[in-house]
Amino acid sequence: MRPLLAPLTLVLAAASLPGTASAAGTTSLTIGSATMSGSTLTVTGASTYADQPFVLQGDDPVGDTVNGLPGTFGQDLTGAGIASNTNGTISFRWTASELPPVLNGSPQLTYGWTFCAGPVEEDPEDPQACWELTASRMNWFIPNPEPWLQVWSCASTCDGSGLTNITGPLVFDGATKTVTATLSRDALSADPGDVISPLLGFSFNDGALWTGMAGWYLAGQDFINYEDTYTVPGKRVSLAIAEPGQDPATVTYGTDATVAQSGSYTGSLDVSTLAPGSYTVYSRACYGANNCAYATSGVTI
Ligand SMILES: [Ca+2]
Ligand SMILES: [Ca+2]
Q1: Among 13, 88, 186, 281, which residue's beta carbon has the most beta carbons within 10 A?
Q2: Rounded distance between C-alpha atoms, residue 122 and residue 154, angstroms
Q3: Closest listed ligand to the CA of 222
Q4: What would the pLDDT profile of 24-50 be if each residue is shown by its tens digit?
Q5: How far apart are CA 284 and CA 277, in angstroms?
Q6: pTM reported for the whole predicted model
């Protein structure tokens, strides 16, 4: 992490960016057809996907700031979460016991987050990409209550990094006491199926109070204890055939369908081992594990 000041140009660029992505409907699913041919059952249908709800990456106690001060300036983190959006963006959210007041520059409280994104299995062809986010709505040098977000490219330990031109909307929500940065998933090289491994979440404070002097920096006002990695979801439909009347949420889905950009899907189930009789086709659409819909259809083998 670094005691970084947002350059004026970046501040202005961030201020002119569009707002956050709006939620995209609900995740839903239909089965259009289930057709036998030989020992193959071909299932088609349609699916739509909602933006994923935030997935908690870690929580943090209230009142544990490094210097023991109350979280008046927004430095007392309480948690962090990630959510993927169907428009191809990914949102990173800090929560704090209080948000920083907007005092036109002082103290500058900045939120940071370092993480790496890459395949589950290390792949020399597709190496991990590591990043550091810094987010604030204050600035030392000019009165500026507008939020600004910087994305730094870094090595696997994030102990040296360079500023990129990647940025996106940053929203401070006083009602929920959240700070949410939304970025292009592609820009972060976070592909569906990749895992985001958090390194550190932190708040830091550049100059506890404005004195007109550059230079005093209190490192790490608070840190988040991460508990989980995050898997970047894709639009996914999975199929199963089983006895009728089962809970669709607990059926074992062993076959993935092919999902088109439009949400229409088609998939094939091998039914060669099933005795003739009445069965149910179970279909599940998910955009993230906590964001699924189910459909069923009776079928006779
Ligand atoms: Ca805390
Ligand atoms: Ca902490």
Answers
A1: 281
A2: 18
A3: 2
A4: 579 999 999 999 999 999 999 999 999
A5: 23
A6: 0.81
